[in-house]
Amino acid sequence: MFNISPMYRRSCGRITFVSDDLHVVKVKIPLSYRNKNYVGSMFGGSLFSATDPIYMIQLMQILGKEYVVWDKSTKIRFKRPAYNNAHVTFEFNKGEITEIIEKVKQEKEVDWVKNLKITNGKEVVFTELNKTIYISTKEYYKEKRAKKR
């Protein structure tokens, strides 16, 4: 259903695979008239927007309702033009999830950085991203916000 949501549909990205435990999500970004730039390669904004919400939504679903998860920032580096379809895999292993839960228990809130590569589906890298995701318990987040008011 995510592929038909207006917010994601405009990115031109399409989710092609989701593992049963939600630890792996694969996205294809087809090159089309909707996302070609002036020189015929894929518009950088389309590459970015197709990756924007995935890690956040993955973590929200994996961690559950006791946690607050936000995309905080992204550093993006365009390595080469994408003149064909682009592919990206979002992955969390069980060790990472355990480490996130433990760090949040200890520190109350965590900025978690994930590295991501958008490729041609093989070895050619079009774009590298470092995504920072904010994670805290819902209880701590509410307390923190109440102090700011």
Describe what this molecule looks like in 3D.
This protein has five helices and six strands. The protein has 149 residues and is of the alpha+beta class. It is elongated, with a radius of gyration of 17 Å. It starts with 5 loop residues before the first helix and ends with a helix. The mean pLDDT is 92.
Q: How are the elements arranged and paired?
A:
Elements: H1 6-9, E1 14-18, E2 24-29, H2 44-49, H3 54-63, E3 67-78, E4 86-91, H4 94-107, E5 109-119, E6 125-137, H5 138-148
Antiparallel strand pairs: 1-2, 2-4, 3-6, 5-6
Helix content: 25-40%
Order of helices and strands: HEEHHEEHEEH
Residue-averaged pLDDT: 92
Number of helices: 5
Q: Termini, distance in Å?
A: 37 Å
The Rg value, from CA coordinates, equals: 17 Å
Mind describing the biggest β-sheet?
3 strands, antiparallel
Spans where pLDDT lies below 50 across 5 or more residues:
none
Number of strands: 6
- Find the structural class using helix and strand composition: alpha+beta
Query: Beta-strand percentage?
Result: 35-45%
Shape: elongated
Oligomer: single chain
Arrangement of strands in the largest sheet: 1-2-4
Task: Produce a short descriptive summary.
The protein is α+β, with helices and mostly antiparallel strands and 149 residues long. The chain contains 5 helices and 6 strands. The strands form 2 sheets. A 3-stranded antiparallel beta sheet has the order 1-2-4, with helices on one face. It has a 3-stranded antiparallel beta sheet with strand order 3-6-5.
